[in-house]
């Protein structure tokens, strides 16, 4: 087989066979195919697209390029959640304990934040001594004992995707449905949970900006998951403004604690109920989403979900006193109010730009080795559709650096678009796909 022939075949709009897809994935990963040929093929795929079988074959080839994580020694139907990435998305820290408190094993290998999007591992590390690097045995044992385990990826998962993604990034070939779906799903499917709920974000702070594109991406990912024999459902959700109120690592842990105690932001709690009830159905814990929702509300109201967070922290060596007394979590030296100079309604609050403000404050990373300020971030006091009077606090900036506060304050003031009430109120959930 020759790479030249595969490029020509795809260039002319033909369909690649399973063997041909395996050939270019294996040989590109091993360094036998040069970047210039792979770039040409990616562009041909980008322009002529892949059909469903090709997309599934590409996903399989990427999964097989590295290690997979066998979870069969965890008892029960194991569930996982994946978000395509957003701002202030504290969901995992709330959803995980809620689902586990319903006796369904929630197992997740999480990532770190990059750019304006946050990562669960960084948030967890704002709890002192919390250990995200678990051995495979610890990961499995904890899931068996307490139904929840969240760790970093230690195994060599989908090395092909790492190389492809880096090349796509510099050859303008990222925004193709098949390439995105196979990239995300290969990473998810390599970790062998039984059921997956995908939270596909759409809006200013998301990777996908249009609802139609997001729905198509969600459908494609659900098809791949199901085609691979795993129960997969997706929800397309709003990321036009940040989720919840807190953006920043320790701030989001505090928000998770409050939400698990029944005292969190409405949108964040609602999203956890929607995603969680789907997981409980997939895990056969309940037969309808309504029943799932009621059970989730029950474990929050009874304190079981909160106790599950404490258990998670204890089992991963974190300091539980900082969960019991959140003021012991990293706290910023300065908390500055950002006040409104207008009266009206919040019309928009661009999530990506708010994420960038948090990044300036040190809550996020510019590059993989930038240092984080775990205490830094933003707490929103007003969100889209809220009524605002002159002098009302729009948001609080948490920072250890007054220079950075100045920059963030100016930007935040500009990001709050205040005017007439929006004719249509915001939506949290756009579409559910199963
Ligand atoms: N996220 C991924 O992991 N892969 C893509 O291709 C796009 C977003
Ligand atoms: Ca949040």
From TrEMBL:
- The top EC class, named as a word, is transferase
Could you tell me what reaction this enzyme catalyses? 2'-deoxyuridine + phosphate = 2-deoxy-alpha-D-ribose 1-phosphate + uracil; uridine + phosphate = alpha-D-ribose 1-phosphate + uracil; thymidine + phosphate = 2-deoxy-alpha-D-ribose 1-phosphate + thymine
MF terms from GO for this chain are: pyrimidine-nucleoside phosphorylase activity
What does the record list as coiled-coil region(s)?
none
The cross-references to Pfam families, in alphabetical order and at most eight, read: Glycos_trans_3N, Glycos_transf_3, PYNP_C
> Which InterPro entries does the record cross-reference, listed alphabetically?
Glycosyl_Trfase_fam3 (IPR000312), Glycosyl_Trfase_fam3_N_dom (IPR017459), PYNP_C (IPR013102), Pyrmidine_PPas_bac/euk (IPR018090), Pyrmidine_PPase_CS (IPR017872), Thymidine/pyrmidine_PPase (IPR000053)
**Ribonucleoprotein is among the record's keywords:** no
**Transferase among keywords:** yes
Role noted for this protein: Catalyzes phosphorolysis of the pyrimidine nucleosides uridine, thymidine and 2'-deoxyuridine with the formation of the corresponding pyrimidine base and ribose-1-phosphate.
Keywords assigned by UniProt, alphabetized: Glycosyltransferase, Transferase
What organism is listed for this UniProt entry?
Answer: Tissierella simiarum
| Subunit | Homodimer.
User: In terms of domain of life, where is this protein from?
Assistant: Bacteria
**Under which name does UniProt file this protein?**
Pyrimidine-nucleoside phosphorylase
Residue stretches making up the Pyrimidine nucleoside phosphorylase C-terminal domain: 345-419
**Which family, according to the similarity comment?**
Belongs to the thymidine/pyrimidine-nucleoside phosphorylase family.
Record's NCBIfam families? PRK05820.1, PRK06078.1, Y_phosphoryl
Supply the EC number(s).
2.4.2.2
